[in-house]
Amino acid sequence: MAVTLDQVADAAGVSKSTASRVLSGSSRVSDRTKRAVQSAAERLGYRPNRIASGLRTRRSNLIGLVITNLVNASFHTITGVLQQRLDECGYQVLLCVTDSDPVRERRYLDMLLDHRVDGLIIVAPVTTPRRSGR
After folding, report:
1. 128: pLDDT confidence band, cut at 50, 70 and 90?
2. Under CATH, which architecture does the 59-123 domain have?
3. Taking the complete model, does pTM exceed 0.85, yes or no?
């Protein structure tokens, strides 16, 4: 069973709202209280409920990355760079590899939209039309 914010607050001897302020990074709390709440959260194994937080903030901190494949060296590089940069900005990447299957691509896009991603990046090969007669 997941540890709740109420349990962390009780263990730290503070109110639920104070524990919430500490765990969300507010500066309006004394250092002593911060240490008590952070210690209780760590000791109990508290993990914030990102879904509940997302409902409040209307942000998921998720970015969907839909890519044709990872075999192509360019796509592999793009994926690595995007993941690193987005991580530095506090985002998690949901990687979806389509293998050029339009049905799978549609399913992934629907799933990402259902998860209310904050952004969507689609990487696909650029094709140029063939010229006939050459």
Report:
1. low
2. 3-Layer(aba) Sandwich (3.40)
3. no
